[in-house]
Amino acid sequence: MLEQLLKYCTNNVEMIKEAYDVVVSVPRRANDLMHLGNFEGYKDLGALGDFVMQETFIVWDPRSLFKKGTERQVFLFELCVVFAKKKENPSTRGVKYVYKSRLMLSEINVCEHVEGDSSKFALRQGDMPNNELRTDLKAPSEQCKVHWVKKIRELMQGLMTADLERRQPLTSRPLRSHASTTSNSDRTSKDSESLGRNVDDRNSMRSFASSDGNFEVAYRAILVYKFLSCV
């Protein structure tokens, strides 16, 4: 319905597009979180940063003795890309994903185009063009590949920006005025206490599979799915 409105409507196009993006993204996000809930074998997922998305890829690991692509469930986090092996879970009659390896975003470069296949891209460790340290990934579609390459580059750019700000000398940073400093100092004790609580809250939400927010997202996805099924 929203897709048809977006196609033919000339008024409030941006508003309709935003609504359409929300309807599409909610079930996709719920699906990603359900896959994350089946992930195991890594001690502290919170240390990997915020969970972004997941997908099934055919992966060529440069460390493998046999140069053959293997199906892997790939999880993208704020700080790294995680590769997991899909296994049957007899206890739930479902599947689980067992941790195999990871690539830190701060240590890789993205090769958007791999010769011979428009749905493949590569993650290369180090700055030198060395195929021995290159992990190739074949996405389910070219559109999926483009989406992943774009998102990984956005995350890498964010890490670079944060690193530059952290390295910036204190003397080169703009100084606040005396009046601003005086007024802000009155709030220091209250802000520090609030900040401590906020940090704890953010850290406690790192475990996406069990957080209340995920249940809310999944619940929304179910409602949207039922609504679209009746249309």
Summarize the structure.
The chain has 231 residues and is an alpha+beta fold.
How would you characterize the overall build of this protein?
There is one protein chain. The protein has 231 residues and is α+β, with helices and mostly antiparallel strands. 44% of the residues lie in helices and 24% in strands. The protein has six helices and eight strands. Strands 1-5-4-3-2-8-7-6 form an eight-stranded mixed sheet. β4 and β5 form a beta hairpin. The C terminus is likely disordered.
Present the secondary structure layout:
Blueprint: H1 2-8, H2 13-37, E1 39-40, E2 51-60, E3 70-77, E4 80-89, E5 94-104, E6 108-111, E7 120-125, E8 134-138, H3 142-167, H4 178-185, H5 188-204, H6 212-230
Parallel strand pairs: 1-5
Antiparallel strand pairs: 2-3, 2-8, 3-4, 4-5, 6-7, 7-8
Helix pairs in contact: 1-2, 2-6
